[in-house]
Design a protein that fits this description.
The chain has helices at residues 18-22, 50-61, 78-82, 93-97, 105-115, 122-129, 132-141, 171-183, 242-248, 267-274, 301-311, 330-338, 363-370, 380-386, 391-407, 483-503; strands at 5-8, 33-36, 39-46, 67-70, 86-88, 162-164, 187-189, 192-200, 203-211, 222-233, 279-280, 285-288, 313-315, 351-355, 375-377, 427-431, 435-439, 442-443, 450-452, 459-465. The protein is α+β, with helices and mostly antiparallel strands and 504 residues long. The longest helix has 21 residues, at 483-503.
Length: 504
């Protein structure tokens, strides 16, 4: 409420030495002063991706009167809008129509726990998976279109349960959820940079916001103080913050590209940490093994390689041989691709290819060829010459692959060959190299989304986190198609939690 005054501490922000100075908006120090609140709201959600929009809709539908979504960039959606549109949903209608009736949320969780290499939280994953169908129906009821008859097995899963949006991006979901949220009375604001939390002891009671912020200029916008009962952090990860990533994991190649939107820099997570929120698994930064060195950012390579991984093969330019199981999870594949190095340690970009004649008019192929992140080659000799690979070795590798296709068995790497095809020119070929993609670490929460404090290992009053802003959920490795699920399901979880906490 305008004019309402409280004597509260606007505490120190994420003061972490030189890093704080390089992160836009990271508050380094403040003194106690009188807060003149510009407005008062029930719940504020920071971030407008899958998690933020799902939380906003679910909170509004639960009866919360005033729900505000703050987005620091000039467009809504964040990383979710450029996500590949893959969505893991056990027992989805397409899966059932394919005759797959033995899948379940528990099966998905088992696959995720295996992928997490012993460091995933089964409890969190179960809570998320239990809302898979709720999340699917939220999308469909909001107007999201998924590809007709499309439900496939993707790396690390033991069942075909991955559906995909019609346009192959998460923007199909964020656009529709945004419109639903707006229609149902959610207040959605762009260019709102959260500079700091306003604290009453260890309890968050409001936000200091730079309204009208124009990324990345911290001299833009006007400072506003917004009082609130609850704050939900749904800001995603920090993969675009190279300095922070290097600080947390020096093994990351600093020349590696990143799939994330520019705003994925993690300052709200750091601010929460400065106020006592516990971080977890911050050094676990995942790479996407489907990246292409011939396009920037997320790009189209993951869509194109979804064909290669199933039907084609990947070969080393160093010796012309296969060197991995193309169907396994991101960590396995990324580690093996990154090991492909020239003698001077520069990347020896592997080549990935499949039959052109099976997909001449497919939008994934048309886009890739148009944008020159893939090429059509008419013979093995042309393929070898273009990428400087020994032609005889490459020919022998393709012949061996074709034998494995016929035998339906891969004795070299144990790849499932059920979708693999006999390879014959012409080929669609692309180069691959992993990109920094997803932050496994973030704020530690309880299973209901409450942020845990580092001082007493108890929830910090009024503070919640969902989606990629959280850590300790997936362990060392997140499976493909699970980011969409985690974000959307988090909205259901945190809405129930906040309503429960408001009743206490």
């Amino acid at each position: 409420m305008q004019g309402r005054r409280n004597f509260l501490k606007l505490s120190a922000g994420a003061a972490v030495g030189s890093l704080a100075a390089t992160l836009p908006g990271t508050v380094q120090a403040n003194t106690c002063h009188e807060i003149n609140w510009d407005e008062t709201l029930d719940v504020i959600i920071i971030g407008s991706g899958f998690a933020g929009l799902s939380a906003a809709i679910n909170l509004k539908r639960s009866g919360i009167k005033s729900v505000l979504v703050l987005e620091k960039m000039m467009q809504f959606g964040g990383n979710s809008a450029i996500n590949g549109g893959w969505f893991a949903v056990p027992k989805n209608p397409i899966q059932l129509s394919q005759g797959i009736h033995d899948d379940s949320p528990e099966e998905l969780v088992n696959d995720q726990v295996t992928a997490g290499r012993g460091m995933a939280s089964r409890e969190h994953l179960q809570a998320i998976a239990s809302h898979a169908l709720d999340s699917y129906h939220l999308c469909v009821d909001s107007g999201v279109k998924f590809r007709e008859g499309f439900n496939i097995l993707v790396g690390g899963h033991n069942k075909a349960r991955a559906i995909r949006t019609v346009d192959g991006t998460g923007g199909e979901i964020t656009r529709n959820l945004y419109q639903v949220a707006k229609n149902e009375g959610v207040d959605l604001r762009l260019q709102q940079y959260v500079e700091d939390f306003v604290m009453d002891g260890n309890k968050i009671v409001g936000l200091k916001v730079r309204s009208g912020f124009r990324y990345p200029d911290m001299n833009t916008g006007e400072i506003k103080y917004i009082k609130t009962d609850k704050v939900v952090i749904a800001t995603g990860g920090f993969a675009m913050n190279k300095q922070l990533c290097n600080l947390l994991d020096p093994s990351i190649d600093p020349t590696m590209d990143c799939t994330n939107a520019k705003g994925a820099t993690g300052e709200v997570t750091l601010t929460a940490m400065s106020h006592g929120a516990m971080p977890v698994h911050m050094n676990m930064i995942q790479t996407g093994h489907w990246g292409s060195p011939d396009e920037g950012g997320f790009g189209w390579s993951n869509a194109l390689l979804s064909i290669t991984f199933h039907e084609g093969m990947i070969a080393s330019v160093l010796d012309g041989n296969r060197f991995m199981n193309e169907r396994l999870d991101r960590k396995y594949c990324s580690d093996r691709i990154l090991a492909q190095r020239n003698p001077d340690n520069t990347p020896a970009y592997p080549i990935a290819f499949f039959n052109y004649n099976d997909y001449p008019n497919d939008d994934r192929v048309v886009r890739a060829l148009r944008d020159e992140m893939a090429w059509k080659v008419d013979s093995i000799e042309e393929l070898a010459a273009k990428f400087d690979v020994d032609a005889s070795a490459l020919k022998a590798s393709i012949t061996l692959h074709n034998k494995h296709v016929k035998d339906r068995e891969d004795p070299l790497f144990g790849r499932l060959m059920d979708t693999a095809k006999h390879l014959t020119p012409p080929f669609v070929v692309s180069r691959i190299w992993p990109k920094v993609h997803y932050c496994m670490g973030g704020l530690k929460t309880d299973v209901d989304g409450r942020v845990i404090g580092s001082k007493n290992l108890a929830p910090l009053p009024n503070l919640y986190a969902i989606g990629e802003a959280t850590g300790g959920v997936h362990g060392v490795n997140r499976l493909s198609s699970c980011a969409c699920l985690e974000g959307l399901a988090g909205g259901f979880i945190v809405s129930k939690t906040i309503n429960t906490d408001m009743e206490v």
